[in-house]
From TrEMBL:
Domain of life: Bacteria
Residues in the signal sequence: none
Pfam family, one: PAP2
Phosphatidic acid phosphatase type 2/haloperoxidase domain ranges (all copies): 70-190
SUPFAM superfamilies (alphabetical): Acid phosphatase/Vanadium-dependent haloperoxidase
Transmembrane segments: 40-66, 73-94, 114-134, 146-163, 175-198
Keywords in alphabetical order: Membrane, Transmembrane, Transmembrane helix
Protein name: Phosphatase PAP2 family protein
InterPro entries noted in UniProt: PAP2/HPO, PAP2/HPO_sf
Length: 207
């Protein structure tokens, strides 16, 4: 979080749009409109947008409630709401312009990437929940052998970062900041509800 805020402050004070690395990355990953990679990137953009993220979060939370994993559902929703709130606040403070040659309509300020934040927050939350569920059933819960959810989460996050930059709607550093912010809210939300569960001793908040 400190890195995200610090870099955002530098962007605001310096008036920098894209850094040298950002410019070179956009040139490297640029797409031809109408190509197969272009439509893959657009699909990812639609799925990872506000409506897509809300639907995915709602479905995941509903499934967790049906499975009686109430704490996991609350943590997931809290993570997404906190992530969106912080992302929008930072955008309004930094006011970084988006790249000029966008290949996909996108409004608002650029830093940090809300898509990258949402992808990270949702995917990492679900990976953590799946891992803990495995540990609850494992004969040796002290060892984290169930790592494939995190591998899938990483693939999804990287795909979203590629999509946002390939469509020229975000700088690379926007997506990196979004990922860092997403990881931060996952940790904060999980820690918050862990403390609440310990203090209230509610059985429903232990899973």
């Amino acid at each position: 979080m400190t890195v995200v805020l610090g870099f955002g402050l530098w962007l605001r004070l310096s008036g920098t749009a894209g850094t040298v690395v950002d410019e070179r990355w956009l040139h490297l990953v640029g797409l031809d409109v109408g190509s197969v990679p272009y439509w893959i990137a657009v699909t990812l953009a639609e799925v990872g947008g506000a409506n897509g993220a809300m639907i995915c979060t709602g479905l995941a939370a509903a499934l967790l409630v049906l499975l009686r994993r109430f704490r996991a559902a609350v943590v997931l929703v809290t993570t997404m709401l906190l992530g969106v709130a912080l992302s929008e606040i930072i955008k309004a403070l930094v006011m970084r312009p988006r790249p000029h040659d966008q290949l996909y309509d996108s409004l608002g300020f650029s830093y940090p990437s809300g898509h990258a934040m949402g992808a990270t927050a949702l995917a990492m939350s679900l990976a953590l929940i799946a891992t803990r569920a495995h540990m609850d059933r494992s004969a040796d819960p002290t060892r984290w052998r169930f790592r494939w959810p995190f591998a899938l989460a990483a693939v999804w996050i990287l795909a979203m970062m590629w999509s946002r930059t390939a469509l020229q709607v975000h700088w690379l550093t926007d997506t990196i900041a979004g990922v860092l912010l997403g990881l931060t809210v996952v940790v904060l939300a999980d820690a918050f509800w862990t403390v609440i569960a310990a203090r209230t001793r509610l059985p429903a908040l232990r899973r």
